[in-house]
Amino acid sequence: MSNKKLLLVDDEEGIRRFLGLTLMDLGYEVETAENGKAALEVIDQLNPAIILTDIKMPRMDGIELLKAVKADHPHIEVIMLTGHGDLDLAIESLKSEAADFITKPIDNQVLEISLGRVMEKIQLKAQLREYTENLERLVEEKTQRIIELERQNAACQVVEGLSEALSSAANEVETGSGLFNELPCLVSIHNRYLEIVAANELLKERLGDVVGYNSFDIYSDRESAGNACPVQRTFKTGKGQRSKETFVSKDGTEIPVTVYTAPIPNKDGDIELVLDISVDMTELKRLNDELLETQYKFQRLFDEAPCYISVQNRDYTIAEVNKRFQEDFDTILGAPCFNSYKHREHPCEECPVQRSFKDGQTHQMETVVTTKNGEQKNMLVWSAPIRNAYGEIKQVMELSTDITEIRRLQDHLTSLGFMLGSMSHGVKGMLTALDGGIYRLESGLRKNDQERVGEAAVVLKNIVGKVKKMVLDILYYAKSREIEVEQIPAGPFLRDTASLVASKAAAANVKFNLDIPEEMGSIEVDSSSMSAAIVNFLENGVDACERKIPGHEYFINVSARDLGDSIELTITDNGAGMDRETREKIFTLFFSSKGKRGTGIGLFISNQTIEQHGGRISVDSEQGQGTTFTITLPRKAELKK
User: Coil, strand, or helix at residue 25?
Assistant: First the structure.
């Protein structure tokens, strides 16, 4: 399959013609289809690497085409073309494993970048597949060769201990005839004076005519009878010996051997001679050295690969990881993968590793992981089966590529659409409440009912505050805003900010405890943005106490203390608390543990604001026990962009 072959699907002929010319200029082989059904009819014949398809088309739209392609041709990458009003459909396509989506009108530079990313993805898949196939083939070849040599080695062990049969064999060796002269082994006979009295032709060919030599002379590391060789140990113990030794050839080179000795008794049962049968292990040593070199080379590739690699067992436990993985995660070999680097108590849904175990295919998914330093990373995860010599899947390799920067750029382009969509229902509700408040105000004014007017004013004030907060959140995220600091008294600022949430806590029957000294010196802050950030944490504390347990008294404690060059603000509640995975993701854009009641941008913006001032946040929380946020702010703002 050519990686440059592309199928363009669009119901508008003009787009097919002009966009096709652009794609050909970029070096792609382009075929076109007018709708999804027509595309499916030609896919098997064309076998494209990439499909570029419009979302809205007659007969079969782009979403249906995407699902059909991924069901039958999962290796084909699909890029969706969408109008500005189709962002929801575009997001749905990403959930169905679309590689990317591009909004119309199509910018040629954006198109080229998107296609470049997809090509990199295709090449990565091909490299991983080739690496796995080569590794499996090499391991199989080396394994078969070692098995063959071990069989030869085992055959020689049969000779050990057959002392009666070896008595007649000694005569065959001396006369230069018989079975042992034909064996592919180095055979020699030694007397009780540790002298070599006979040797077969192969030994003479390799070591020279050693008959009459001392038994220890043929070894490279034996210098005298005091340094016992296997023959001497056999005379001493009366038992056959097996050991790995090194002979010296007639040209002075070393020959690694496995030595088997057996005692040969005389008629009285005394050991008269010792038979030495040695197997030349040169070839096995060469293969072992070659295998070690190959293993070292692949270990280097394994460790130096610019991605995270782990090898996992069927029960989710980690068998091996590369150096990059070990550096960034607290990984314990044998521990479950979902606990080691996802910090979960249970396996992930749609785990690609388990899918590879089931069907033997490669699979992929995107996920977010947290390193041991607390850094969150977007990862593109690939899985590939590792088979044994019989084709059985024994383990699965998981390869994870860091795509955080790519996703950060994509988020910057698409998140506004997500945000506005998720807030639309909230805005409608606020407008309805605003209409109700205005109606009550007008009714109170007509009837001159001051109590009704006051109640309406409170309602309108609350609604306007919520609208203001939502608009500020949108502006903070939609536009990178530089903070404007001023020097203000720290104590009154923190007390006034905390008091903004006191009424909400009282309405929720949550005790609000304030311990902030009036005199804490001054601090440089952007008062409006910092106040909004602190209020976010306080309101989250009130929300966490809403899941009430009968008879349980809920509270929020707000305290501050002077640390010299900085000020520490602590917000503690005894509400629902958070598990580890939630703690690690609460400052992630659009993540919310409140379901439909949360937008997922409040704490994200609060975290950004505190970081812009040069401050930091720590979180301590346990499920069912409550949460503590500790915010540390420098007195002199260390402005960060």
Answer: helix
Distance from C-alpha of 140 to C-alpha of 163, rounded to nearest angstrom: 39
Rounded distance between C-alpha atoms, residue 460 and residue 440, angstroms: 10
Q: What is the pLDDT of residues 486-535, one digit of tens each?
A: 899 999 899 888 888 888 888 888 899 999 998 899 999 888 788 888 88
At 410 the pLDDT is 66
Ranges under pLDDT 50 in the chain: 1, 155-166, 418, 422, 425, 595-598
Q: Which pLDDT score is estimated for 1?
A: 44
The conformational region for residue 621 under phi > 0 = left, psi -120 to 50 = alpha, else beta, is beta
The single-letter code of the amino acid at 70 is K
* Run of H or E residues at 67: helix 62-72
Contact 272, 238 (CB under 8 A): no
**Amino acid 592: pLDDT:** 56
Instruction: Return the number of other C-beta atoms located less than 10 Å from residue 403's C-beta.
Output: 16
pLDDT at 159: 41
With CA atoms as reference, report the closest residue to 55 among 13, 101, 17.
101
Are 489 and 535 spatial neighbours (Cβ–Cβ below 8 Å)? no
User: How many H helices and E strands in the chain?
Assistant: 20, 22
For the packed helices 404-447 and 450-478, what is the interaxial angle rounded to 10 degrees?
Answer: 160
How crowded is residue 425: how many other Cβ atoms within 10 Å of its Cβ? Answer: 10
Which of 90, 77, 71, 81 is closest to 119 using CA atoms? Answer: 77
- pLDDT tens for each residue of 85-144: 677 777 888 888 888 888 888 888 888 888 888 888 888 888 888 887 787 777 777 777
Query: In this structure, what token pair is assigned to residue 303?
Result: 């460790």
Q: 363 φ, ψ to 5°?
A: -140, 165
Structure tokens at 556: 């929020």
Overall residue count recorded for the chain in this entry: 641
Q: Specify the long-range contacts of residues 621-625, CB closer than 8 Å, at least 24 apart.
A: 621/577, 621/578, 621/583, 622/577, 622/578, 623/576, 623/577, 623/578, 623/579, 624/576, 624/577, 625/574, 625/577
- Beta-strand ranges (E) seen in 207-253 are 242-248
115 token code pair:
């296609």
Specify the DSSP class assigned to residue 552.
Answer: P
Nearest to 383 by CA among 403, 399, 401, 360: 399
Residue 49 CA to residue 6 CA, distance in Å, equals: 6
